[in-house]
């Protein structure tokens, strides 16, 4: 019997960083399951990504447990196994205005999607990951480590995601490893569902403010995901990896 291809499940995978990760793993010969709440982005993703035979797209709200259960069941039936879960789904806009006017519903929605969604994905994919000694990768943010004004809900959800990750690593090891990635400025414009046909290039100053000399790309994040789910990272768990071109290590002074 032919050996089954490894299967990776990516939430929020129809655009942005998630879509870049999906494309990367398709190119590496994996079978890829993409979960996303945005039906239009799902349609665009189906048209844009290569190798449709190895791609499954499922419309899912990761904050709803019944939808997560159904999506994971469908993913495993289709793929025959599960080797990696990437919880990338999240409400990306960090600015919710002054804390005095932040509505509880706004706060709760960011916690539900960014943090509870990752919990639900872990809860329902772990039984399958145990069988393959697989991995969980949670997508946090550099805003879990440093903040801008009016970003309390977003920062709290991403900080919680890092804590959830190291708790999972302790609970699930040695069968399942869990790590997180905190991206900085990643240029996802070309990976959005509504990407224009021609993008304006980023400025030289945009790139120069990064110690690495450039703004990040989804491929930079995808490469780290690929390492973390590989056998080469079997001694790596409970860690958070900052992918930001050095920005969080840069001292900034006013002129």
Would you write up a description of this structure?
The structure is a single chain. The chain is of the alpha/beta class and 255 residues long. It has one domain: NAD(P)-binding Rossmann-like Domain (Rossmann fold, 3-Layer(aba) Sandwich), CATH 3.40.50.720. β4, α4 (104-132) and β5 form a beta-alpha-beta unit. α3 (65-79) packs parallel to α4. The protein is globular. It has helices at 16-27, 39-48, 65-79, 104-132, 152-172, 204-208, 218-228; strands at 7-11, 31-36, 55-59, 84-87, 135-139, 177-183, 240-243.
What's this, in brief?
GO terms for molecular function: oxidoreductase activity. The chain has seven helices and seven strands; from the N terminus they run E-H-E-H-E-H-E-H-E-H-E-H-H-E. The protein has helices at residues 16-27, 39-48, 65-79, 104-132, 152-172, 204-208, 218-228, and strands at residues 7-11, 31-36, 55-59, 84-87, 135-139, 177-183, 240-243.
Instruction: Give, in order, the helices and strands.
Output: EHEHEHEHEHEHHE
How many E strands?
7
Cα end-to-end separation: 67 Å
Helix content: 40-55%
Number of domains: 1
The fourth-level CATH homologous superfamily is: NAD(P)-binding Rossmann-like Domain
Second-tier CATH architecture: 3-Layer(aba) Sandwich
Q: Biggest sheet, open or closed, and with what strands and sense?
A: 7 strands, parallel
Structural class: alpha/beta
What global shape is seen? globular
What order do the strands of the largest sheet run in, or round the barrel if closed? Answer: 3-2-1-4-5-6-7
Tell me the name of the CATH class: Alpha Beta
Low-confidence stretches: none
CATH topology: Rossmann fold
Calculate the mean pLDDT score and round it: 94
Number of helix segments? 7
Instruction: Tell me the fraction of residues in β-strands, as a range.
Output: 5-15%
- Overall radius of gyration: 18 Å
